[in-house]
From TrEMBL, chain A:
GO biological process, one term: clathrin-dependent endocytosis
Annotated protein name in UniProt: AP-2 complex subunit sigma
Principal location class: membrane
Location of this chain's protein in the cell: Cell membrane; Membrane, Coated pit
Automatic annotation (TrEMBL), chain B:
GO cellular component: AP-4 adaptor complex; endomembrane system
Biased composition (Basic and acidic residues): 755-776
GO biological process: intracellular protein transport
Biased composition, class Polar residues, residue ranges: 691-702, 737-754
Location(s), subcellular: Endomembrane system
Protein name, per record: AP-4 complex subunit epsilon
InterPro entries the record matches: Adaptor_Complx_Large_Subunit, AP4_complex_esu, ARM-like, ARM-type_fold, Clathrin/coatomer_adapt-like_N
Lineage: Eukaryota, Viridiplantae, Streptophyta, Embryophyta, Tracheophyta
Gene field: LOC104590425
Length: 198, 971
């Protein structure tokens, strides 16, 4: 008998909200996870899926530099502080030394991190394992284009000193883990209106 | 640049950021941040802080928190800031709280009120700010507080507000689906919104709704199709274009939805065929985003009711992906292949070499994806190769999560497709040896059961053979220094059960080994328990066979040690063993029959054999038995009374009768035989033993049911062997196309439609010639064993061979592997020099990773007897590069190649136009280079310069590929 990992763990963890995520074909075909302290790690993984009943969404977005310093971190799923640090550390370790020829996708626990490097900055975005990777890769690029437009020729320092603006731009671009607006023009206009107030 | 001073922050803050940036160690950074926290704590509580200053403090708190420090002392100030009237401050306040607080934070309740107020604001920017906060902060309990207002905002005049309201509702749906189910009509209405942004946002909740319940949305198929059509025809405003693609993100979302709606629904699918075909045709395959849309199209096509034409297009795109140099595209290609295989199992064969390349790629992501594909295409003919590969990979990685996954996949495949008992045992041994502690206990039990039961055929001989081969391999493996506990349990059980069965090994030899196991794992009680039980079995079999048992001294000392063990379970086992040793042969045979682990144990639940005993007792005046439920009912009542009234003062005499003796003892003692055998059979229930003796009746019944469960488990398991997963191959639809295009191809004409196919066809050939190792692998993965006459040199015969039997094309490659190496020079007929090969030459970086392999050695190996080459190559992840070199050598050794190349070049150009050209900055740049790579490898500076300027013209931020630009970017 095979236990689809999702169901078993979900029923164990408290935040089962009735509507369990459908076991994706990929995950259900494999892993049996015993209910065993050794798999505590796996339980933690499922914190990602925690209170949200559906799986296709962005879990978090990270901007990190080569040294692993976080330049921006936006989580769309609730995580403990300590868990966030672990995530940031792990993601950095995963992406920083990858050969530039390799895919821009890395498996991260039960999810997938799609990353892209711009100069010394890594933009990483964590999504569901079955989502369209290339689309998210371009989503990162669109975000960078928006930043570039907004800061007119963006550099890392712009982001460092104006991280709060970057958050605001991100809020216009991605909301609640979904792309809400894909028109660069619309976003820039919205930001312009906010800027006028300053 | 120049923005550092221009954003209204104080010098103090800029200095902070700067000093953090310059910090040389984590410790220094922490020191600076801690100072900052102290300072903020002090200042933020001062009275009458100017608002602007306060705003900066809040931003600094965000910064501190982002660096991983706790800023919770300031949360309340951020909350307060959301109350402010100034939009700027309010926005900052909302930003800070959405970053600080999770949906279940206590402070949320203080914000809900503000949010409610702000949602009603006249200023739409305030409303937007509030809606952004709603998405993050509103939890299940507070949804009702804001829901009516959010719904009202769906009709707001500003599209930005409508869009955010939709997203907020989507979030509500995710949090608590029932909260918004009555609003579904609103989503449908918003789908027709004038603003494409709102329409695009509406697709998010609709996707979720549809995936939860497809049937209620079938009426929307035509709407979605017409929206997609309009998007694809560039009817949306230009501002939604991205890299010359019309609103690609919206297209992708629509395709996802169509995939859901069309799945298993022929009628709905037929609506989609035209638009999907259009997208396949129009999509720009030179940019990442174009490929993303194409990939989504493939996903959609493979999910809806199949259309041969669309599947052809999908296959074509897939093969382009697979042939790309770009790893991302290869990755997508593998995934697309996996999806298409569900519809057409034969499609993988065409791409076998590409798949093998990916399998041997140093990029783990790609490799894992490929394993996923292989897992799906495993059948009994290729299971050995695939599982071997998987195990090799499993051994090489450290990531426990993936190791577990791949181990269980190996087990699954082995159980399903194992070609022979021997192979199965060997495979399981490997899996257990390297990932024993990661696999599920069930796997171990399955293995034991399998060895015990045999493979279902009634041939006792093969079963015995299986068992003795298992015993032999286990005895060999036992000499390994470190084995996972789970594996040792299996070994002990099998040795105990079958160690002496075939008479090859003496009982003392086996018991000696088992003693060693127990001694080597002093802290593992379970293994020790297994070992001692196994020893008991061996001894029992010996006694039953009438031989005298002489316990080895180390065995005796083990028993002595265990009988004094802290674990009552081990004690019990030790005593049982001693008891068994004292019995005579006849008794032992009945309690421990040899090879009886599969016998069903009749559990006489009613204990009828005790009837006479009970009768006797009753006659002697004993109390009759009261069934447990009746008894416990009585007890409960009396207990209640006890506790409620008397318990507190109950230190005096007790007037109620003591509880009736529970029947556990009577249950257990008279029936020792079932109990003992239950321990043997259900090792997992052993831990209940000690508890059982301590606790009373309930547990003993548990053991009983445990035994029956066990019986059930033994019977109810189906045999999995040889069950075919894939239907017999159906002639692929694409092959018929192939034969015609091949003819065209040989003439050097490149029509657009046939073109890519030609390339694919050609490219495969020379690669196949080059690496016998790969060929072998390919053959074993994809093909059967039927051999084919070697007619390759002539392209015509080639064609006919394909014509005649497309399915057996792979075997040909396979069996010819030895011959091909020698034939290589002749075979490289002009036309077969493939563009992709040249492309491959352009990727020297792959070669960098495998400097240990000498191309010339490879060359020798390839030209020499094939076994040499395969031995040099075996197991490495690397072979991609050298074979391509070979191709070059092969070509140059041919006279008259130059003409062929000249023929080829235009073809190349065409294909490149298809694949690359006008490549956006995001592209990996390899394709253009490839043009010149036929003569020269390495990146071409001129190209990159051109691209650079192109990118600048477009106002596009250049990507990774242009280091110069980054310097610019950084100022």
């Amino acid at each position: 008998m095979v236990y689809p990992a999702h169901e078993q763990v979900q029923s164990l963890v408290l935040f089962d909200r009735g509507d369990q995520p459908k076991a994706e074909p990929r995950s259900s075909s494999s892993s049996f996870l015993a209910l065993d302290p050794r798999f505590l790690h796996t339980l933690i993984i499922f914190l990602f899926a925690s209170s949200l009943s559906l799986s296709k969404m962005i879990r978090f977005i990270l901007l990190q530099n080569r040294q692993g310093k976080t330049r921006l971190a936006k989580y769309y799923v609730p995580l403990e502080e300590s868990e966030k640090h672990k995530v940031e550390y792990e993601v950095h370790r995963l992406v920083v030394n990858r050969d530039p020829k390799f895919t821009n996708f890395v498996e991260f626990r039960t999810h997938k991190v799609i990353y892209r490097r711009y100069a010394g900055l890594f933009f990483s975005i964590c999504v569901d394992i079955t989502d369209n990777e290339l689309a998210y890769l371009e989503c990162i690029h669109l975000f960078v284009e928006i930043l570039d437009h907004f800061f007119s020729n963006v550099c890392e320092l712009d982001l460092v000193f104006n991280f709060h603006k970057v958050y605001l731009i991100l809020d216009e671009f991605i909301l609640a883990g979904e792309l809400q607006e894909t028109s660069k023009k619309a976003i820039i206009e919205r930001m312009g209106e906010l800027e006028k107030l300053e | 640049m120049g923005s550092q001073g221009g954003w209204g922050q104080s010098k103090e803050f800029l200095d902070l950021v700067k000093s953090i940036g310059e910090a040389r160690s984590k410790a220094e950074e922490d020191r600076i941040v801690l100072n900052e926290i102290e300072m903020l704590k002090r200042r933020i509580n001062e009275p009458d802080i100017p608002k602007k200053k306060m705003k900066e403090y809040i931003i600094r708190l965000v910064y501190v928190e982002m660096l991983g420090h706790d800023a919770s002392f300031g949360y309340i100030h951020a909350v307060k800031m959301t109350h402010d009237d100034s939009l700027l401050l309010k926005r900052t306040g909302y930003l800070a709280v959405t970053l600080f607080l999770n949906e279940d934070h206590d402070l949320i309740i203080l914000i809900v009120n503000t949010i409610q107020k702000d949602l009603k604001s006249d200023n739409y920017l305030v409303v937007c700010a509030a809606l952004t906060a709603v998405c993050k902060l509103i939890n299940e309990e507070t949804i009702p507080a804001v829901l009516p207002q959010v719904v009202e905002l769906l009709g707001h005049q500003k599209e930005a507000v409508r869009k955010k309201a939709i997203m907020a509702l989507h979030r509500f749906y995710q949090r608590s689906p029932s909260s918004v189910t009555h609003l579904i009509s609103n989503f449908r209405k918003r789908l027709c919104d004038n603003d494409p942004g709102v329409m695009g946002a509406t697709l998010c909740p609709l996707f979720d709704l549809i995936s939860a319940d497809v049937d209620s949305y079938k009426d929307l198929v035509t709407s979605f199709v017409s929206i997609l059509k309009q998007v694809a025809e560039r009817r949306l405003p230009k501002s939604y274009d991205y890299h010359q693609m019309p609103a690609p993100f919206i297209q992708i979302r629509l395709l996802k939805i169509l995939a859901l709606l069309g799945s298993g629904d022929k009628q709905a699918s037929e609506h989609m065929y035209t638009v999907l075909g259009d997208i396949f045709r129009k999509c720009d395959s030179s940019s990442n985003i174009g490929n993303a849309v194409l990939y989504e199209c493939i996903c959609c096509v493979s999910s809806i009711h199949p259309s041969p034409k669309l599947l052809d297009s999908a296959a074509e795109v897939t093969s382009r992906f697979l042939k790309s140099d770009n790893h991302n595209l290869k990755y997508l290609g593998i995934d697309a292949l996996r999806r298409l295989m569900k519809v057409n199992p034969d499609i993988a064969e065409e791409h076998q070499l590409a798949v093998i390349d990916c399998l041997e790629d140093p990029d783990d992501t790609l490799k894992r994806k490929t394993f996923e594909l292989l897992f799906k295409m495993t059948k009994s003919t290729n299971v050995e190769v695939i599982v071997d590969r998987m195990i090799d990979y499993m051994i090489s990685i450290n990531d426990n999560h993936y190791k577990t996954e791949i181990a269980s996949r190996c087990v699954e495949l082995a159980e399903q497709f194992a070609p022979s008992n021997h192979w199965f045992i060997q495979t399981m041994n490997k899996v257990f040896e390297h990932a024993g502690d990661l696999v599920n206990v069930k796997v171990a039990h399955n293995l034991m059961r399998l060895i015990a039961e045999g493979f279902g055929d009634d041939d006792e001989g093969t079963d015995n053979q299986l068992r003795s081969s298992a015993v032999e391999s286990y005895l060999r493996i036992l000499s390994e220094p470190k084995l996972p506990s789970m594996f040792l349990q299996v070994i002990c059980w099998v040795l105990g059960e079958y160690g002496t069965a075939d008479g090859k090994f003496s009982a003392s030899y086996i018991t000696g080994k088992l003693c060693d196991v127990a001694e080597a794992h002093p802290s593992d009680d379970i293994v020790k328990a297994y070992a001692v039980t196994a020893i008991m079995k061996i001894c029992a079999f010996e006694i039953a066979a009438g031989r005298k048992v002489e316990l080895l001294p180390e065995c005796q000392s083990l028993i002595d040690e265990l009988s004094a063990s802290h674990s009552t379970d081990l004690q019990q086992r030790a005593y049982e063993l001693q008891a068994v040793l004292g019995l005579d042969g006849h008794a032992v045979e009945s309690i421990m029959p040899a090879d009886a682990s599969c016998e069903d144990i009749e559990v006489d639940k009613s204990l009828s054999f005790l009837n006479s005993y009970v009768q006797q007792s009753l006659e002697k005046g004993a109390q009759p038995y009261i069934p447990e439920n009746e008894r416990s009912g009585i007890l409960n009542i009396s207990n209640f009374r006890n506790q409620d009234q008397h318990e507190s003062s109950a230190h005096g005499l007790r007037f109620e009768a003591y509880e009736l003796p529970k029947p556990s003892i009577t249950l257990r003692t008279p029936a020792p035989a079932p109990a003992v055998s239950s321990t043997e059979l259900v090792p997992i229930s052993e831990p209940t033993y000690p508890k059982e003796t301590n606790q009373a009746a309930k547990l003993s019944t548990v053991t009983d049911t445990g035994a029956t469960e066990l019986k059930l488990r033994l019977e109810g398991v189906q045999k999995k062997w040889g069950k075919p997963t894939y239907s017999t191959p159906v002639p692929s639809t694409s092959s018929s196309n192939l034969k015609t295009t091949n003819g065209v191809n040989q003439l050097g004409q490149a029509t657009l439609s046939s073109h890519s196919r030609d390339v694919s066809y050609d490219s495969k050939r020379p690669q196949a010639e080059i690496s016998p190792e790969k060929q072998k692998l390919a053959a074993s993965l994809f093909g059967g064993s039927s051999s084919k006459p070697d007619k390759k040199p002539q392209s015509t015969s080639h064609k006919t061979s394909r014509l005649g039997n497309p399915a057996s094309e792979k075997p040909q490659v396979a069996t010819a592997s030895a011959a091909t190496t020698e034939l290589a020079p002749q075979k490289t007929a002009p036309v077969q020099t493939p563009p992709p090969d040249l492309l491959d030459l352009g990727e020297p970086t792959v070669g960098d990773t495998i400097p240990s392999i000498d191309p010339f050695k490879q060359l020798e190996g390839l030209l020499g007897p094939p076994d040499v080459s395969s031995s040099t190559n075996s197991g490495t992840v690397s072979v991609t590069q050298p074979p391509d070199l070979m191709a070059l050598y092969g070509d140059s050794s041919l006279s008259g190649v130059s003409s062929s190349i000249s023929n080829l070049v235009p073809t190349n150009l065409d294909s490149m136009n298809l694949v690359s050209s006008s490549s956006s900055a995001a592209d990996h740049g390899g394709s253009k280079v490839a043009l010149s790579a036929s003569l020269k490898k390495g990146p071409n500076p001129q190209d990159s310069l051109e691209k650079d300027s192109l990118a600048r013209q477009l106002g596009v931020t250049p990507s990774i590929q242009n280091p110069n630009l980054f310097r610019d970017l950084l100022g």
